[in-house]
């Protein structure tokens, strides 16, 4: 079988740390071309994989024969690049947040539908081993109904992650549109929807720029959310957890409590009301410092190979984005927003 020919738009941190190495490790993929306005950045990866470098993704689309692309660029470019690629008949794996508005998200889904290509969103939290285990336990029913929860994602901010450090687009509102909420909050809105197999129907958001200087994007958010089945919980996103970053979720259920990613070494802990405590060592959550394969790229390739729609679809990405957009609306209006 011929290999899937892939191009990557944006050659920054997420491309270099996950998309490119994970494509390179997949025997069914050929990395064909890279685009980044910083010529040397694109050329460096292109040389490494015997691929072509472009500064303009539109030129790349015009010149190369491809099957799929990864969109790993600043948030404001996700929609236009994904739509151009879909219109060119290519499968698209776009990073989160999939878009910056509901309308953009809908246009992306429509473009993919019209071209008969797959649109997948890089919500890798779903595939992290502790989260896979937690979902398996919750789905088993032994904890009963989820009553209340907290889910949180915080670290010291993208200055130590982005290829451009403190000068990164992450801090420029016209390119990022959202700060910690678009970076981290959307991971948790997606994860909690997925884990609980339920939808967030109401959100109240307290969002602000609490500590980062020289930026007007949000660096902290605390939201209260209500699920369709009645559970209520909090969702936090922070770029100011300078120590003790948090990527944990705790569910309090009818029959006990499940702690996910709260204790190093015991990634999932189940404390049942009958007194039993179960601990599961299933491998750590990825952190900015310690990257582990995301599994997202292999899942995308598998979808294409088997002609099976991706589970982390554009529709899923949009529902998770809408929670974050609702939280901003709540912050702006001072009201609880119904979704
Ligand atoms: N799934 C995850 O866990 C995860 C983690 C980090 C970032 N991300 C997402 O990935 C995306 C990229 O973030 P990053 O951390 O790699 O940022 P980054 O700052 O490290 O890299 C962004 C790259 O995009 C390039 N770029 C800018 N304009 C471009 C254009 N017109 N065409 C092509 N390339 C262009 C920049 O030059 C830079 O090399 C963001 O949307 C971010 O939210 C996802």
Automatic annotation (TrEMBL):
Residues 132-257 form the GFO/IDH/MocA-like oxidoreductase domain. Residues 4-123 form the Gfo/Idh/MocA-like oxidoreductase N-terminal domain. It comes from the Bacteria. Gene3D superfamilies: Dihydrodipicolinate Reductase, domain 2 (3.30.360.10), NAD(P)-binding Rossmann-like Domain (3.40.50.720). One of its GO terms (molecular function) is nucleotide binding. SUPFAM superfamilies: Glyceraldehyde-3-phosphate dehydrogenase-like, C-terminal domain, NAD(P)-binding Rossmann-fold domains. This is Putative dehydrogenase. It comes from Paenibacillus rhizosphaerae. The lineage of its organism: Bacteria, Bacillati, Bacillota, Bacilli, Bacillales.
